[in-house]
């Protein structure tokens, strides 16, 4: 599943090819994604892309009269390819531009989404209740401590709650807690402000490092084969259960929390 760094790298990868470009055709081959693709997307024809931004894991493509919202779900790949490239299975949605490029969305599992905010208004309240972006100044020292007061949930579950902070998915929650030396099971409300501030800095660093590593894959967004948006990362704990801790050589343990895998080192990480 793509996490925040993959979505941000996707944004960086597609932006230069579609910014300020005029849409000449919108093709909906299968409207049954996570939510039906609204017919209003046809109003984009002849409109020009003004900006491409990101909120949490949503890509927001802004036009003068509204915003096209893309969510990468479990299995979406988005590419900007030559408009002449033949359509393949699961290519559900195309935006074709006057520069002979097409933004093409492929989604085998159809958990992704293509939505339209009329006049830029988020009528479903999709983005309304989201917590701060982790890489902005809104996510700052003191914030997690304040949010964690009296919270009797494990810190890992707390971090992965989009109402607390967006974009800290399973991979980066595991990784940040390892680097912060905090066990994933520790109750959020029991952690000192100092340690939560350190965790805040580490979350920012871990996500920023992943985005800069993803920078090497930017060209993949313009190729019709391959899997853009997924990049090799150096991870300490995620996916390494049963292997040795890279710091102390203790065997890494794995538990399930909220039905997700948590991998940790019982020596490097403490309550
Ligand atoms: Zn260790």
Keywords:
four-stranded antiparallel sheet, binds zinc ion, 271 residues, alpha+beta
Structure description:
- By secondary structure, the chain is of the alpha+beta class.
- Helix content is 22%, strand content 21%.
- The chain contains 5 helices and 10 strands; from the N terminus they run H-E-E-E-E-E-E-E-E-H-H-H-H-E-E.
- It has helices at residues 4-18, 143-148, 155-159, 170-180, 193-214, and strands spanning 23-28, 51-55, 58-63, 66-71, 77-82, 91-97, 101-106, 113-118, 253-257, 260-264.
- The strands form 3 sheets. Strands 1-6-7-5 form a 4-stranded antiparallel beta sheet, with helices on one face.
- Helix 1 crosses helix 5 (193-214).
- It is elongated.
- The model has no long low-confidence stretch (mean pLDDT 93).
In short:
With 271 residues, this protein is an alpha+beta fold. The protein has helices at 4-18, 143-148, 155-159, 170-180, 193-214, and strands at 23-28, 51-55, 58-63, 66-71, 77-82, 91-97, 101-106, 113-118, 253-257, 260-264.
């Amino acid at each position: 599943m793509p996490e925040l760094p993959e979505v941000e790298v996707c944004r960086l990868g597609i932006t230069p090819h579609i910014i300020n470009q005029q849409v000449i055709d919108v093709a909906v081959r299968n409207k049954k994604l996570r939510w039906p693709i609204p017919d209003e997307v046809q109003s984009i024809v002849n409109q020009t892309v003004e900006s491409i931004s990101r909120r949490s894991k949503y890509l927001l493509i802004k036009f003068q009269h509204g915003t096209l919202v893309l969510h990468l779900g479990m299995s979406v790949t988005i590419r900007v390819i030559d408009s002449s490239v033949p359509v393949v299975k699961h290519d559900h949605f195309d935006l074709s531009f006057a520069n002979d490029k097409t933004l093409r969305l492929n989604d085998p599992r159809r958990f992704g989404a293509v939505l339209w905010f009329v006049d830029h208004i988020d009528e479903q309240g999709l983005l309304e209740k989201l917590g701060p972006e982790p890489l902005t100044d809104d996510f700052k020292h003191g914030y997690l401590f304040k949010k964690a007061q009296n919270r009797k949930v494990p810190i890992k579950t707390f971090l992965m709650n989009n109402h607390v902070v967006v974009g800290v998915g399973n991979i980066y929650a595991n990784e940040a807690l390892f680097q912060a030396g905090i066990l994933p099971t520790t109750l959020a409300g029991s952690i000192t402000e100092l340690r939560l501030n350190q965790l805040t800095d580490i979350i920012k660093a871990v996500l920023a490092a992943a985005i800069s590593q993803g920078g090497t894959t930017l060209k993949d967004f313009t190729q019709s084969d391959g899997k853009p948006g997924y990049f090799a990362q150096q991870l300490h704990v995620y996916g390494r259960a049963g292997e040795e801790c890279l710091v102390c050589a203790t065997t890494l343990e794995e538990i399930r929390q909220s039905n997700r895998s948590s991998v940790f080192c019982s020596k490097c990480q403490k309550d």
